[in-house]
Design a protein that fits this description.
- This protein is α/β, with parallel strands linked by helices and 150 residues long.
- The chain has a single domain, classed as Rossmann fold (3-Layer(aba) Sandwich).
- Helix content is 31%, strand content 31%.
- β3, α2 and β4 form a beta-alpha-beta unit.
- The chain is globular, with a radius of gyration of 14 Å.
- The C terminus is likely disordered.
């Protein structure tokens, strides 16, 4: 299978982008990763593969290690039941794999990167989330941002 998304992201970043995966009990979560520096995990919205983060990835990859992952059932990740617990568990598993990171959530990914979710995540997994941003595509602006000091 040809991975057109990987090739496109690699071109946008000027090279060095790889496809990674994580086994979640017999199903695979897959992501595209590039750059170095402070890790940033991009959390896509409902029914959205990582391809929708191309411009954001390109803007961040120069100064950050960017991880853009396909949630279960989207893009290159294997399907799974769409439950909030499973999706939050997947995000936490990605964070455990890549290390502490800022989380950028878009649309449905936004509530999980909001201050309330990040605060709960920091209580349960303190070293995994260093900040979060919730981005509303409808408004085209950042709705909420949180930093490492909360």
């Amino acid at each position: 299978m040809t991975d057109r998304v990987l090739r496109a992201f690699d071109a946008l970043a000027g090279g060095g982008v790889t496809r990674q995966e994580l086994d979640r009990g017999g199903r695979k979560l897959r992501w595209i990763e590039g750059g170095s520096g402070t890790p940033v995990v991009l959390e896509a919205g409902a029914m959205s593969p990582v391809a929708g983060f191309a411009a954001v990835f390109q803007g961040l990859v120069r100064d950050h290690r960017v991880i853009a992952y396909d949630r279960a059932g989207y893009g290159m990740s294997d399907p799974a039941p769409l439950t909030l617990d499973l999706q939050v568990g997947d995000l936490v598993a990605v964070l455990e794999e890549v290390g502490p990171a800022a989380v950028v959530g878009h649309s449905w990914g936004g509530p999980r990167s909001s201050r309330r979710w990040c605060s709960r995540c920091r209580v349960r997994w303190p070293p995994k989330v260093v900040g979060g941003i919730r981005w509303c595509r409808i408004r085209g602006t950042i709705c909420t941002s949180t930093g490492p000091t909360w």
